[in-house]
Design a protein that fits this description.
142 residues, mainly alpha
């Protein structure tokens, strides 16, 4: 029974780590390979995503479910920036709110299917990580 619980915990930590690594690698690919300049809000999202790739990787390698306490603030704050950025991109393009730096926060380098944008992908990653961490917390309380 205990071994099965440990496997479940390990799965949720791995899922959170994999989402963070994929989001980190994706953002680096878009900026360093595709040469898409990140806007100010993209930088804030990166500030909260990149450490998660490291912290969750260490937690996975150690089987440390105590990471939830330390990772949740990064996820909530970074997810808030992603949500705000996603909403901002959906505003009319002449909105003064979009002038957030040298690169417009409404810049739309990637637009799959007419609605999937870079900040939306970051938001999805933060939601996956949040879900995994909350499941992990629930398993810890059992």
């Amino acid at each position: 029974m205990e071994e099965q619980l440990d496997k479940k915990k390990s799965f949720w930590i791995f899922l959170a780590w994999a989402a963070a690594v994929l989001a980190t690698a994706g953002s680096l690919y878009l900026s360093e390979v595709m040469h898409f300049a990140p806007c100010s809000l993209c930088w804030f999202q990166r500030i909260f995503m990149y450490p998660l790739a490291i912290l969750l990787g260490i937690a996975y390698s150690r089987g440390d479910s105590g990471i939830v306490t330390y990772a949740l603030p990064f996820v909530v704050i970074g997810g808030g920036f992603s949500l705000y950025h996603t909403v901002l991109q959906k505003l009319p393009h002449d909105s003064p709110l979009a002038a957030c730096g040298p690169v417009s926060c409404q810049g739309d380098y990637l637009n799959w299917f007419g609605f999937i944008t870079i900040p939306m992908l970051a938001l999805v990653a933060f939601i996956i990580i949040l879900t995994a961490l909350l499941r992990l917390r629930k398993l810890d309380r059992q």
